[in-house]
Amino acid sequence: MTDRHNSYIVVLENDVREDDAEHIINALRMVRGVISVSPNVGSYQDTVAQERAYWDWVNALHDFIDERRKNA
User: Fold this and answer.
1) How far is Cα 54 from Cα 57, in angstroms, rounded to an integer?
2) 3-class DSSP state of 20
3) Which ranges constitute the DSSP H helices of the chain?
4) Which has the closest alpha carbon to 37: 51, 25, 27, 19?
5) CA distances in angstroms from 28 to 10, 15, 16, 24, 66, listed in the order given
6) Which whole-number Å values give the CA distances from 5 to 31, 38, 46, 50, in the listed order?
7) In the chain, pLDDT over 70 holds for what percent of residues?
8) pTM reported for the whole predicted model
């Protein structure tokens, strides 16, 4: 027996202005089986999470470079 999906989450590469997003919303509505599309408005928590992820990556890259220099 296989699992049955009841929804999908679509994550956009960047935040899109509401007036510029209408074509994206309309395109998603055209997908067969889609009965609703509701935009999610970003919050400060999103910004905090993005910044933390970015700086975690930057710090890991610096650590990697430092380790490579020590072993060179």
Assistant:
1) 5
2) helix
3) 22-29, 44-71
4) 25
5) 9, 16, 15, 6, 45
6) 15, 18, 26, 28
7) 100
8) 0.60
Cβ neighbour number for residue 25 with a 10 Å cutoff: 13
- What local confidence, expressed as pLDDT, does residue 11 receive? 86
What is residue 1's three-state secondary structure? coil
Classify the phi-psi angles of 33: left when phi > 0, otherwise alpha if psi is within -120 to 50, otherwise beta: left
- In the chain, the amino acid numbered 44 is Y
Find out whether 39 and 25 touch, Cβ atoms under 8 Å: yes
Q: Which residues contact 18 (CB under 8 A, 6 or more apart)?
A: 39
Q: How many CA atoms lie within 13 A of 23 on its CB side?
A: 2
